[in-house]
Write a sequence for this structure.
């Protein structure tokens, strides 16, 4: 089964120089909006004016994955310090028992980022952060950014430097896929899992359905998801229970 969420159907929230395009129910965007897809609870594209800040307060028991698309962003998490993110960088906040305040602030120019929230297998634990730099993906088209499966990173060493995926407390994988026109990606999964693919740039065919930039595709009941690029394309994919 595949369902397409076209950009015109997404939630749109704007305040204080921050614009959110929401694939799932979030803050004032509710009504008929889907609440989640598997363990993927939130998928927002966040656009920040120069120096604008997106804020979260008193979040707990959630894995917050941030991928910077454009510009520079400073992430500040209470008790866990600051991180400077550049395009392509991936950052994870594991909220655990709770974080008081987390902010994502653009530099002196506008910035854009994706944020995925995943529901962990178990609640609680100490809050943590992780960072994976864009340099790790040099020469690759299909990159595993974050994973809740130990076998994906058996060593669990050199986090953020060796190119290993950032750890998650959810049985999920977050991937970034870049394809040239005519290129193809095969995503292996299980029929009982939930895959959500966002077309960040370009246009693709997903299981026989055309999906343009900004479109999200919710897939389940498949053991493989085949993506063909109709033009140079970039996708972010979440595969979860």
């Amino acid at each position: 089964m595949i369902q397409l969420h076209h950009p015109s159907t997404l939630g749109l929230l704007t305040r204080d120089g921050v614009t959110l395009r929401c694939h799932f129910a979030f803050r004032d965007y509710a009504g008929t909006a889907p609440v989640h897809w598997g363990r993927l609870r939130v998928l927002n594209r966040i656009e920040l004016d120069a120096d604008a800040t997106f804020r979260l307060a008193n979040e707990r028991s959630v894995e917050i994955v941030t991928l910077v698309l454009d510009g520079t962003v400073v992430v500040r998490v209470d008790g866990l310090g600051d991180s400077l993110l550049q395009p392509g960088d991936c950052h994870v906040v594991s909220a655990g028992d709770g974080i008081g305040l987390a902010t994502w602030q653009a530099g002196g120019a506008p910035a854009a980022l994706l944020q995925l929230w995943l529901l962990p297998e178990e609640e609680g634990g100490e809050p943590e952060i992780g960072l994976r730099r864009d340099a790790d993906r040099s020469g690759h088209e299909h990159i595993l950014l974050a994973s809740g499966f130990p076998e994906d990173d058996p060593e669990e060493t050199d986090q953020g430097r060796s190119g290993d995926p950032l750890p998650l407390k959810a049985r999920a994988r977050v991937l970034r896929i870049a394809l040239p026109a005519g290129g193809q990606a095969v995503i292996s999964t299980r029929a009982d899992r939930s895959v959500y693919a966002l077309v960040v740039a370009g246009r693709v065919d997903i299981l026989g359905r055309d999906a343009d930039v900004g479109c999200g595709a919710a897939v389940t009941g498949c053991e493989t998801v085949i993506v063909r690029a109709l033009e140079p394309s970039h996708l972010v994919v979440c595969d979860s229970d």
In short: Residues 2-240 form a domain with the Jelly Rolls fold (CATH 2.60.120.10). The longest strand covers residues 40-48.
